[in-house]
23S rRNA (Guanosine-2'-O-)-methyltransferase RlmB (Methylorubrum aminovorans), 542 residues
Amino acid sequence: MFEPIAIDDPDDPRLAAYRFVRERDLVGRQGRFIVEGEVTLRLLFSFSARFAAESVLLAPERWAGLSDLFAQRAGRPPVYLAGRDVMSAVAGFPIHRGVLAVGLRGAEPAPAALIPPAPAPALVVGLVGLTNHDNVGGLFRNAAAFGADAVWLDAETCDPLYRKAIRVSAGAALTMPFARAASGSALLDLAERHALTPLALTPGGDETLDALEPPSRALLLLGTEGPGLPDAVMARARCLRIAMAVGFDSLNVATAGAIALHHLAGRRLAG
Amino acid sequence: MFEPIAIDDPDDPRLAAYRFVRERDLVGRQGRFIVEGEVTLRLLFSFSARFAAESVLLAPERWAGLSDLFAQRAGRPPVYLAGRDVMSAVAGFPIHRGVLAVGLRGAEPAPAALIPPAPAPALVVGLVGLTNHDNVGGLFRNAAAFGADAVWLDAETCDPLYRKAIRVSAGAALTMPFARAASGSALLDLAERHALTPLALTPGGDETLDALEPPSRALLLLGTEGPGLPDAVMARARCLRIAMAVGFDSLNVATAGAIALHHLAGRRLAG
């Protein structure tokens, strides 16, 4: 039987990876990331998760409700139990839900390894310069909802495994494959090499989204709400706009992405 | 020429409505609300705004860039200038942008007064039990983007004129007409009385959104992400679902609303 390990010393070295969660959010964790809360912990242990857990830290009263996660799993990580006061002292802020885990990033895959080879249908989301964790998390959630194969990120786009991005993604950051390329132009090079039609979503697009017959293989490119996609990216893509009311041309980028993914995924989805 | 009024005493009674902004957010303001930042201030003074400003409070260096708002306006409210330290002392938290205003709610209109009478086309969004300001703000933004005529709220749905909701709405809370009814059932009574087809968006819907021919007059009902719309509401509406990938049936409610509005608005929008 799998037994959790009780810890009552906030300085116990086995909790080192949980120390100063917020400060470390800013500087990175050398191959690790933090998961918070039951829903995301369950996703981290689901078959669709892409990452292994290094350890789990629970308030003792959460163990009974979560022990099923460890019953049937080979190679399960240690589970530490510590009171909420100890958890909060280690993490440096109040851990109300009493559920934390450390995930291991592993090696990041190559972008092309994540998508079905041509001529199979493929739908990829490309994020260029998105530095807001809410937007990146929301786009992962939407990419998962509409069955995208992968998310590709340029170098400037922020980390989908940042705590807030994982939370806003409803855990999709743990399951949706993603990889990085250097820039928007590098994403377009990949699209060319792998027979993906590059589509740029922009309020100034020549065509409306609704008029587009979804290509069988597509890369949907999204940029920040203010400056939008770089001109050099738009010049190499079909530029699409979402029809909106006169005098209002502003949607949140994650929302605009959802509308485009809904259109592009179309017949691929469960009716 | 319109002259702003310099104030350097945080206890000046003319600034009373700006005092303790955060604490007052929680208890209400007796017919007033607070607007923050240039974008929303400009919307409050635009022709499409539904509310009057009672006064404006600016850091002195913001005056030059905003004085155009007061040049051509009859009945303009007083503009107070105070340094950021005074503004922050009055408001009780740091006012980085140096732009605040107090708006007047006025009398709330009757729900039916906000929509075109039958048989003209009409698109109304009905929010039931939405207590998250991000979601309500996001839905106002999306309702504006897709040209909805109005938003109707049940009694439990939170205030669209709360500061955070205004900000997330990108100011649409100041321009999109809204009114309250007692409950989801009261919203359905209104729909019946005013020939609006009631549509309920729910993951368990019988029909997919895409298969629906948009009715000329519709009330789109949205509930909270967890519990969803009350059964009594769904029993009286056509229940629609958004087709999603197998194993993932979760979209943010504002995002789901945007997808449905995009479909329902369809031909009404600027191509």
In short: The radius of gyration of chain B is 21 Å. Chain B touches chain A at residues 48, 138, 141-142, 144-147, 170, 172, 208, 210, 242-252, 254-255, 258-259, 262, 265-266, 269-271 (CB under 8 Å).
